[in-house]
Design brief:
Mean pLDDT of chain B: 92
Radius of gyration of chain A: 26 Å
Number of helices of chain A: 1
Strand content of chain B: under 5%
Largest sheet of chain B: none
Structural class of chain A: mainly alpha
Oligomer: heterodimer
Helix content of chain A: over 70%
Number of strands of chain A: 0
Number of domains of chain A: 1
Distance between the termini of chain A: 89 Å
Helix content of chain B: over 70%
Distance between the termini of chain B: 26 Å
Number of helices of chain B: 5
Amino acid sequence: MKSTIGERLNHTVENLRGLRDEIKLQAHLAAMDARDGWKQLEKRLENAEHSLRDSLSRPRR
Amino acid sequence: MLLDGVLAQHRSVTRTRLDRALGSLEHRDWEQAAIHFDEFRRACEEHMDVEEREMFPALDASLGERSGTAGLLADHKRFRQMTAYIAACIDLHDAEAAAFALHRFGEQFEAHDMREEWVLFPMCERLLPPEKIARLREALAEVEELS
């Protein structure tokens, strides 16, 4: 049976709504991952700075 | 298996809690949605906490990197991010986004549970001492009491 234009439009709108909600969710998760990655990077940078300072403050032979 | 009963209870109670939250969202009953989702979220959190406390360290100690707990921990992290998002959607009264994410969460949580049920729990029963299994069973059962 052929679907009417209205039914097809409804279907398209439903699909777009699903896509919108999917993108919203994925954007939120990506933002959280980015925040975690940033925290890890800052921690590693801090450690590297400590190591550098330690090695520079040690008397050279 | 010793843990079969408690796992079946976990599946059924999780589904009931999820359906309650989805039902409230469908009716745009924000107060009930917040209450039901909070119950669901807390139970999932407690279930994951029990696994992370009672099960994963024991398996890691026994099998090292082969235990497979790293992937499950990554799933747990993702679930916690998703529940935070769903709670925020409910606070903002965004029913469509909350329901979409809750459906997605339900699918992923179920797939995760299946992996645990078929791989991790049988591994526990083979490797862990009976008293440890009994403690795990008791802790999991406590979480699954439906209010």
